[in-house]
Amino acid sequence: MNRVYVRPIGMAQSPQMYEGDCIRLGGTLVWCHILEIAVYDNGKLQSRMLTSVSDFENALCKLPDALAQIAQAQFANLSRNHAPMIVGSRTIRFDQPQIMGILNMTPDSFSDGGRFDGDLSAAADAGFAMTEAGAAIIDIGGESTRPGAPAIWEGDEIARVVPVVEKLAAGGAIISVDTRKAAVMEAALEAGAHIVNDISALSHDPRALEIVAQAGCPVILMHSPSSGTDPHQHDGYGNVVTDVFDHLQARIEAAVAAGVRRTNIIVDPGIGFGKSLRDNLLLINNLTIFHALGLPILFGASRKRMIGALSHEVPSDQRLAGSLCLAQTSMDAGAHIIRVHDVPETLQSLNVWRGLRDAALTSS
Questions:
Q1: What is the DSSP track for 137-197?
Q2: Contact 266, 298 (CB under 8 A)
Q3: Is 283 exposed, middle or buried (CB count within 10 Å of its CB: 0-12, 13-18, 19+)?
Q4: Tens of pLDDT along 198-225?
Q5: Of the candidates 201, 135, 123, which has an alpha carbon nearest to the alpha carbon of residue 165?
Q6: Predicted structure pTM score
Q7: Going by DSSP bridges, is the β-strand pair 31-41/2-12 parallel, antiparallel, or unpaired?
Q8: How far is CA 77 from the centre of its chain?
């Protein structure tokens, strides 16, 4: 069955570059002048058109009516302004990238496993340090999801996560809980967490949709190819970009049908989860397509294996430069939240990027 996708490809630093013939992607500081309208059948490209923003309606006339309607809806989604996320007494705006700091309460995570295992005081200090450095959200996880990591019992995961959630929440931090288990979601939300970040897009645990819907909290739906024990297991992709897009779209509709408010959903293409180096590079180079889902985008590639693969297999604690490069690439694509290990360094990169964008917008 033919499917259509509208992808921004001709980016601009400001709308002045093309005398206003641009759209603003997702309410961010990123603008687009040229769009690709591509039709695929089972992952195979059937046709491709390039059009300026001003000529988009004319380009739609070349599509069958059903596909034209879908493309029109995606076009509207591309320039959708996302309402700020209200969490407790705090407001997180999406008109510039926000930084999410990673706090792993695990003995075996790929980058910093064991650093805070069993040390609540050190973990809380690290979380508060990230907020002081400028992180808008602290993402706390109690189960490693690196390739080959064993699954753990939900009771153990709760024991790892809840004490640090309570301590950071009491100090005013905005917290997301990185889990795919409904019981852990429940316990963390009761302890003061504000956001659920599920690598399975609420498909691993049958109760997860209900928990998030009842809580009325924001949720991050990430793509992973399997909802089973191993989130990296898959049978291959027809086209990784369109397959991930379609999967996220289906999970969005499943969440909405279960009672989750659409405005509470954030999407994440799942860099590194069941994807080859080539798959990851394709997703990052095509990150702008996910604006067509009409929701804020989270990007997480900090210290991931792909950086080592491109850099003579440097270990995870020596991947800062690659992480910053990928973070800035996601900023250029209009990512709304960037999930990182190295908060101060990423904030510095973001501040310079923001200065360049502001200067471009105010230039004559």
A1: EEEEESS--STTPPP--HHHHHHHHHHHHHHHHHTT--EEEE-S-HHHHHHHHHHT--EEE
A2: yes
A3: buried
A4: 999 999 999 999 999 999 999 999 999 9
A5: 123
A6: 0.95
A7: antiparallel
A8: 16
Model pLDDT, residue 103? 95
Grouping H, G, I as helix, E, B as strand and the rest as coil, residue 24 is strand
Query: Would you tell me how many other CB atoms lie within 10 Å of the CB of residue 17?
Result: 16
Q: Which two tokens stand for residue 3?
A: 């499917």
DSSP string for 233-287: -----SSHHHHHHHHHHHHHHHHHHTT--GGGEEEE--TTSS--HHHHHHHHHTG
Give the residue numbers marked as catalytic: 304, 339
Write out pLDDT tens, residues 318-363: 999 999 999 999 999 999 999 999 999 999 999 999 999 999 988 7
At 330, phi and psi to the nearest 5?
A: -70, -35
SS3 294: coil
3-state class (DSSP) for residue 355 = helix
What are the residues facing 339 on neighbouring strands?
100
Gap between the Cα atoms of 338 and 340, Å rounded:
6
According to the model, what pLDDT value does residue 119 have? 79
Q: For residue 251, which of 199, 194, 188 has the smallest C-alpha distance?
A: 199
Contacts of 69 (CB under 8 A, 6+ apart): none
The whole-angstrom separation of Cα 256 and Cα 209 is 9
Encode 113-139: b = buried (16+ Cβ within 10 Å), e = exposed: bebbbeeeeebbebbbebbebbbbbbb
Tell me how crowded residue 64 is: count the other CB atoms within 10 A of its CB. Answer: 10
Q: Phi first, then psi: what are they for 302, rounded to 5°?
A: -55, 125
CA-CA-CA-CA torsion sign (55, 58, 62, 66):
positive
Q: Which residues of the chain have pLDDT under 70?
A: 108-115, 117-118, 230, 364
Contact 127, 205 (CB under 8 A): no
